[in-house]
Design goal:
Elements: E1 12-17, E2 40-46, E3 58-60, E4 67-71, E5 74-80, E6 86-88
Antiparallel strand pairs: 1-2, 1-5, 2-3, 3-6, 4-5
Length: 89
């Protein structure tokens, strides 16, 4: 991805969801229709009021707290900082 075409306002974060696993822990491959959405996303932009999260952090996103948006072929998530329960280290 090049530059994010969105500028988040206030305490909002723009992130890109990571690819979901394509196989189970036991080695079975999952069909595309059965893949769950990943709950891990990489931050690409932050609003001016975001305190604890910065660009390039990997965050946990609650399943129904984010707004999905597609611009051209790129997919983004818009989420409030308070809806991010953890940063992945």
């Amino acid at each position: 991805m090049s530059k994010c075409p969105l500028q988040p306002l206030g305490d909002r974060i723009i992130a890109e969801r990571e690819e979901a696993e394509s196989k189970t822990p036991t080695g079975l491959y999952l069909p595309a229709s059965n893949k769950e959405k990943s709950q891990i996303a990489k931050v690409v932009a932050v609003g001016k009021d975001v305190k604890d999260i910065k660009i390039d952090d990997r965050i946990v996103v609650r399943e129904y707290s984010a707004t999905d948006i597609k611009i051209n072929e790129d997919k983004y998530l818009i989420v409030k900082e308070e809806d991010v329960p953890a940063i992945v280290k």
